[in-house]
Records
---
Amino acid sequence: MFTGLIEAVGKVVGIERHGAAARLTVEAPFPPAEISLGDSIAVNGVCLTVVGKGGGTFTFDVSPETIDRTAFRRLKSGSRVNLERALRLSDRLGGHLVTGHADFVAVVTERREASGNIMFSFRIPREFSRHLVEKGSVAVDGVSLTVAAVRGSAFTVALIPYTLERTNLHAARPGTRVNLEVDVIAKYVERLLGSPRPGRSKRPGRARKRP
């Protein structure tokens, strides 16, 4: 579990393709002694397991499912990636609950300045727009952001200068593809509301008439 508060921006230094899978090596400023093999790190909002480390780099295996569902296929040597280590129970939850399981790839459609902030608009699959609400939370390449507006199959967020400077979103432009994870609470609520209660059928029976 993560918070969407990016700890560092790393650099991709190697990508080895293994059929539909890949092995990703990222240069990161994390102290090696604080990272163990098997630890989880969110890379651009995607939870990956550390399988190797050394020389200031960390290596991850990326499954075909992850490559198919994220923008990882566009990563190349030199790409900048947002990094966050897994949440500890003693940490403050400054962002929102982020699982590191990206739902889909969104596309930047607009970038503009407004009162010192940068407004980004994204195009998303229409079926996911119901999971986004104004003032709700969303993770964009692992960055916890507040939804400013939702219109059909698009939504807008505002980034303050601090966030822009300390994440890879400073380089995002119209056409940039990003990993997007909607609020997990919204998905659970939808699941609960769309499923019958335990012990009840989907169709309510006809009420019995009182004698």
---
Amino acid sequence: MKQAATALTSWAKAIRKALDAAGVDSARLFAEAGLDSAALDDPNARYAVDATTRLWRLAVTATGDEAFGLTVARHINQTTFHALGYSLTASNTLREAFERMLRYFRLISDAADLTFELDGDRYRFALCPPAHGPQPAPESLDAFTFLVVRLCRGLYRREFSPLAVNLQRPMPHNISAFERAFRAPLKFGAAQNEIWFAREVFEQKLEGANPELARHNDEVVVRYLAQMQKQNLRARVHAALIEQLPQGEPSQEKIAEAVHMSPRNFQRKLAEEGTSYTELLNDTRRDLALSYVRDPGYSLGEITYLLGFSDASSFNRAFKRWTGQAPSAYRNGKPDKA
């Protein structure tokens, strides 16, 4: 049976701050939504998404504010999303920050998927709620979309604006709050919740870039996800691989032992999840390689060691298979010559 979707309580904490600022009895609404307010004091705690959706709807009714999601986004800060907030802030570029957000979005919520892709000279970022089952409150999608824009302004420039913002929600009666928030062409009733950005801006080095800080906080995020998803074998294998790769490529039997399973049961469970040990090993190495190669603090020799490759040529072949470029060319931003 699929587990119910959850989200960090920090989302609800921002809702409480917005309610309190509006003079609304937040404690009453939390109780009505079936949420234990005491969990707000635990930075690792999570709420069921269906309960936070009830809270969103109660909050919008109580405030009478159809732009309440935009208000909540203004109450979110760097600590709201655990260590991921620090990783995003320390990213080298906006592109890297968004790639990191995609990789670790499950920390924030596992109720939706994100996509981030290059389309010509623009980047497209989309938040995709589940196709079936209960849908999130429109205001929660407003909040996250505005939060993404605010992230760009905080990391790049305060006057930054996206090229366009499309929202699935119906057009509000008063769109001025949305116009002031996004400062970009808006479309309501769109097929998807998406934001379009200029490619040039997303590939510029950020002033606050700190690869070492980003990497350390990524490790905290990975440990949190492994703990959160004890029943998710992929996450447990990912964490075990990160720990063991510096000692050389671990065998399937060794990773099975690390996640407390017999080799046969381990292989069967992976097959049930539609994957294999070889695939997970490759995916983990690729994700780590992209992160490490972008960090000038690592030599290519160190990266070869950290990823468990026996020699530099093996790493070079693998990296070229993943990216189409040699590690040195990727790091320098120069395409390989044919």
---
Amino acid sequence: MLAAFVHEDLDWDRLTVWQVDERVAPDGHEDRNASQLWFLPSRVELMAVAGDDLAIAATRYADSLPARFDAVHLGLGGDGHTASWPPAPHPDSVVASSPNDVAMVGDFNGRGRMTLTPTPVNRARSRVILTTGKSKAAMVRRWLDRDRSIPASHVRRSATTLFLDTAAASKLPPSGDAPG
């Protein structure tokens, strides 16, 4: 989705892209989400996850955030996570209820993480969730059915647009019968 935006006629000098979440790994490491942002012709604010004091880095990132984002781009994992909000019984599953704007998450899918919490995500004017693949179809349905047991349920539904490929939409009812 971000690659498609590059070809749009936007005033890139006026845009700033902020990371929603990042894996704790050295700068330039292939596991880093930052590697997906290098081509954007805008200012990019990266999460500093390569340092020694990640709690201070998380606080600094939170302090630098704008009062409100225009849009937040999210995905949806096959386990129901979005951003880096792990599902229970992960010990950091409480991050989805954090009052802070940025939180640290212990080892989740092989890496520690820094993540925005639902607070700034839901404060945004809009949210976009891009989800592809059959492995995520059940979670798409559960999110649309308002299943409160999955982390993505913490995403505000109003002003949220869900983009799905055919595989991710495969467990949805026929058009016109979609869940509320």
---
Amino acid sequence: MNATNAGKEALIRNISDTALWVAVYRARENERPDALFRDPYARKLAGDRGEQIAKLMQSRVSHEWPYIARTVRVDQIVREQIQQGVDLVVNLAAGLDTRPYTMEVPPSLQWVEVDLPAMIAYKEEELRNEKPHCKLRRVALDLADVPARRKLFQELGGESKRALVISEGLIVYLTRDEVLALASDLAAQPAFHHWVLDLASPGLLKMLQKELPALKEAGSPLKFGPEEGPEFFLNAGWKPVEVYSMLKTASKLRRLPSLMLRFFALLPESNGRQGSRPWSGVCRLTRIN
């Protein structure tokens, strides 16, 4: 994954390279004296290409703070749900996430990471000498393969009584129909009680499409920012029960990089329809019985 000829090809070759970018942000946070979380593996996993991608993406606008806020909120939800009896965590498009190695979780917890074969192979090679804190399984699977993912979901649903699904950084790359289909497939499993995801408003989606043209050039354009907000998922069997604004979260964590953003963070909270307002949040959904 580390490029020796980055100058001869696009830095972002495909959607998997965005995982290198996000790992850089986790590495930078880990190296702060006031770090909000620890990820000692992030720097190694990101490699030189990851740092180059992060510099490219930050050439115009700082994108680091929402990823830090997102990580903190997802960590919070994972901990709370494990305390409340979750026995299986299913991380879709897991990328270079290292929570099974860095979070204090019960050894009996089942944790399943699903991603493309090349990402799984790279991660297993880089972390081959490390030991996770729980029962970790990796599945090499293209989630666009609908029959294969349904088979996997059915298998995992049969192995759990209370599962938590994570799809951090995934659905923004899908169309409305693709998100709806994925949500319906997950809801088909009674054991999948909770789903944690990050969501963008139409306004933020439009802004990011303009600010991050490299994603489109790599064949991984940003697509999903529903007008309905978190309530989009009601039609697919999921009810939003927790919604955390990334701006508000980053403000509380003291990670906002500018006075203007700090000012906007003082405005009243709004977790419903956002329209043209640039908004992003982490949502916990529960399956509608």
